[in-house]
Amino acid sequence: MMDIEERATKYGVSSTLLHDWTKEQIELKKKIILSDSEEWQKSKDAIESEENCTKASLQYVAGVDISYRKDHEQEACTACVVCSLPDLEVVYEDLEIVNVTTPYVPGFLAFREVSFLQNAVEKIKSSHPEYVPQVLLVDGNGILHPNGFGAACHLGVLLDIPCIGVAKNLFFLDNISRDEDYHNKVLSLKEVGDFFPLYENSGRKVGVALKTSKPNTNPVIVSVGHRCTIDTAIWTVLRCSKYRIPEPLRQADIRSREFLRIHNC
Q1: Cβ-based neighbour number of residue 74 at 10 Å
Q2: What is the arrangement of strands in the sheet containing 163-167, beginning at the earlier edge strand?
Q3: CB atoms < 10 A from the CB of 53, how many?
Q4: Under a CB-based contact definition with an 8 Å cutoff, are residues 116 and 78 in contact?
Q5: Handedness of CA 83, 237, 70, 78 (dihedral sign)
Q6: How far, in whole angstroms, is CA 72 from its chain's centroid?
Q7: Are 210 and 237 in contact (CB under 8 A)?
Q8: pLDDT digits (tens, 9 = 90+) for 49-95
Q9: Mean pLDDT across the stretch 18-30?
Q10: For residue 236, which of 186, 139, 165 has the smallest C-alpha distance?
Q11: N-to-C CA span, the chain
Q12: Which residues contact 211 (CB under 8 A, 6 or more apart)?
């Protein structure tokens, strides 16, 4: 991983800005909760049948994502889609064209995107409070991150809501890469729910590669963002998955891309 000065030069931003972002990450990181804190997390089995769903069970999950115009890196569509459980029907969506001016710098994606995602989630509280989600799925990473504080952590802490990072691709860290061992482990995932852990250099488990779809050989990368354990994150992602990508995130991606197309973006 490049140091701050090298990244500032490569991505055309000031080193002062990256130092400020680093300080903010460090302060926000102190607020991460990596344990289950909600009633639904303690009674997860209640969702197994529709008859057993109670106020203490998990009923609404949101997926948040940003899709960019292919030929314009600043024009994008933010999407917040809420699905009900256990049927995974879309009960709420918010789509908005935004102008993303903050540059992308690896390790600092949250500073480019999280403010838009935060606004999208907060809209639900005023417009449709009955669909306020109990947990957020973020297209990105949680503690599986060079600074241990990815976009799922950042958004979760700001909103103080359980948050889970679900990435389509593996984020390379010093001790984690798509090497031969990784590919062999992927091939060992046979059944939906199979997974293998991902460890950073210190030996701490920072995520898992999780098989969510029988036909698809590629796992998703799941990591904790805020207010949940990795076991709860795995449980939640599996119960939200019809296909490889959990349904709230899949719908957010589909709908945001279609919204861009309709609006000629």
Answers
A1: 12
A2: 90-99, 72-84, 60-69, 135-138, 163-167, 220-226, 205-210, 195-199
A3: 17
A4: yes
A5: positive
A6: 23
A7: yes
A8: 544 444 468 999 999 999 999 888 899 999 999 999 999 999 999 99
A9: 97
A10: 165
A11: 34
A12: 189, 190, 191, 192, 193, 194, 195, 219
User: Cα separation of 213 and 253, whole Å?
Assistant: 18
CA pair distance 263, 265, nearest whole angstrom: 5
3-class DSSP state of 209: strand
CA angle 126, 256, 78 (to 5 degrees): 50
153: left (phi over 0), alpha (psi -120 to 50) or beta: alpha
Is the distance from CB of 82 to CB of 133 less than 8 angstroms? yes
As given in the structure block, the two tokens for residue 96 are 């908005």
Question: pLDDT tens digits for 198-218?
Answer: 999 888 999 999 999 998 889
pLDDT, tens digit (0-9, with 9 covering 90-100), for 161-190: 999 999 999 887 777 877 889 999 999 999
User: Three-state SS for 117?
Assistant: helix
Quick one: how far is CA 98 from the chain centroid? 19
**What six digits make up the tokens of 6?**
């090298």
If you count them, how many residues does the chain have? 265
Tokens encoding 211 = 């098989």
Residue 243 has phi, psi (to 5 degrees) of -125, -160
Contact 92, 114 (CB under 8 A): no
pTM, full prediction: 0.93
Dist. CA 189–CA 124, nearest whole Å: 37
Check residue 253 and give left, alpha or beta (phi > 0: left; psi -120 to 50: alpha).
alpha
Neighbouring C-alpha atoms within 13 Å toward the C-beta of 56: 9
